Amino acid sequence: MDSTVTTGTAEENVWGGGNSPLGASYGKMMMWFFIVSDALTFSGFLAAYGFSRFKFIEIWPIADEVFTHVPFFHGNYPMIYVAFMTFILIMSSVTMVLAVDAGHKMKKNAVIWYMFLTIIGGAIFVGSQAWEWGTFIKGDYGAVETKGGRILQFVNAETGERAAIRDFAKTLPSERVEHENKNGVWFFDEGYMPSYSFNEVMEGFKANPSILIRTEAIVQEGENEGHKTLLNREESLKKIKDGVLVVEGANLIRNEYGSRLFADFFFFITGFHGFHVFSGVVINVIIFFNVILGTYERRGHYEMVEKVGLYWHFVDLVWVFVFTFFYLV
Amino acid sequence: MAHAHKLEIFRGLLKFKSNTQKIWGVLIFLSIITAVEVVLGIVKPRALTHSYFIGMKLLNWIFIILTLVKAYYIAWDFMHLRDEKSSLRRAIVWTPIFLVAYLLFILLFEADYVYNVYKDGFIQWNF
Q: Which UniProt keywords apply (chain B) (predicted)?
């Protein structure tokens, strides 16, 4: 593999087969083919995200205010956990390169250990992403959606912090007839129900003068540039009349963080990436057992480790872009 | 697979003794870049969020450039494109770069146009 000379006999010409002008084996070439096409798929997703974001540039949710949680810790830590996840993925990329390097030197035991560490890193990453999804779906403050599908969030004027609807909503006595299976000719279950009705939130809001409304619009100039618009009490009382329903957490239809497309793209892009990480872990496990069984030792080279390594690094590479465009920019 | 590794990064400024050392060196470099990104993302210095270059905040330009730098080192050292033939490397790198640049140009311009339609085009969306 050191040069471009043909490996065939002297009578064979360039097109007679037997030479490899790109210096890469068939399997490696095909892995690169796959990676380039998959990179274009991810670029398509991220470009679509960019399209939707530019379209709603003045009302797009601010990532720092959405992803603020760290497992086992209470409080407001924007970015910290995602940075940790990024580091885990880069770290598992490093152990993967070390496995490939050990494979070149035909050190079976070193390859086993490095593959093992790579798999652990991948598993931690997938687990973190599942936790991140769980937190995102659960939500923390709750919000109100207006007739036009816009989100109104609440702020406590005294502390300046976000106010959760559970902290100020009133509990109103009301009766609701539950639709049951035995009464329905064609039965659908009720599905998602927020913990407070819109009326309870509105009454609580009216009774509590320190609660203000924050709209989706990002202030474009002046002192508060780059922050969401905070209405004063009169404007807030007027605005709450536009509300129609309570939104808690996120699903594919609506989310409490703002624009509906934000949650859709979050689920779609990080989900697609998480699926890649998951399949990468599965492929790594298969190769891991092959290494233990001595398959590549008998074959005489560890090229398979190199090929899954390429895929694994590609997953890391995609995450670098997802991290930037979802969490930073 | 006995080809020799190229052991220098930063255009020969830093040369490592072995491939393993180079891997750790690249890890340290990538970690530093990530740390810088996270710190800038949390602090958001006013000087960078209030100045613009071609319609985008300076801070976002910094993030995108740092991301491309990270992508370069992942592809060149972890995916060892540095050790591949230049013909393979170019085929892999320039194909997506050309297509993605084209796609971004079209989509982002269109999105900006749609934004202006929403803004000035007598369409009520905020109610």
A: Cell membrane, Membrane, Transmembrane, Transmembrane helix
Beta carbons of A23 and B100 less than 8 Å apart:
no
Show Cβ contacts of residue A301 under 8 Å, excluding neighbours closer than 6 positions.
A103, B1
Ranking A65-69, A211-215, B6-10 by mean pLDDT, the lowest is B6-10
* Whether pLDDT at A33 is above 90: yes
User: pLDDT tens-digit profile of A285-306?
Assistant: 999 999 999 999 999 989 999 9
Residue B53 sits in the same domain as residue B6? yes
Interval A235-269: pLDDT, tens:
999 999 999 999 999 999 999 999 999 999 999 99
- Domains of chain A by start residue, with CATH: 23-139+262-328 (1.20.120.80), 143-248 (no CATH)
Element of type H or E holding A156: strand A151-156
Same domain, B7 and B66: yes
Same domain, yes or no, for B29 and B91? no
Instruction: Dump pLDDT digits (tens) for A139-150.
Output: 989 999 999 899
B70 and B98 part of one domain: no
Contact across the interface for B71 and A2, Cβ inside 8 Å = no
Q: Does B89 lie in the same domain as B77?
A: no
Domain encompassing residue B43: 1-83
State whether B118 and A146 contact (CB < 8 Å).
Answer: no
Q: What is the ipTM of this complex?
A: 0.90
Give the per-residue SS3 of A107-135.
Answer: CHHHHHHHHHHHHHHHHHHHHHHHHHHHH
Residue pair A118/A277 in contact by the 8 Å Cβ criterion: no
A 135-194 residues with CB < 8 A to B: 146-148, 150
Considering only CB atoms, A328 lies closest to which of B30, B63, B88, namely B63
Structure tokens at A79: 């970015």
CB A175 within 8 Å of CB A113: no
Query: What's the structural domain count of chain B?
Result: 2
Q: Are residues B16 and B65 in the same domain?
A: yes
Q: What DSSP element (H or E) covers A44? A: helix A26-55
Do residues A194 and A249 make contact, with C-beta atoms less than 8 angstroms apart?
no
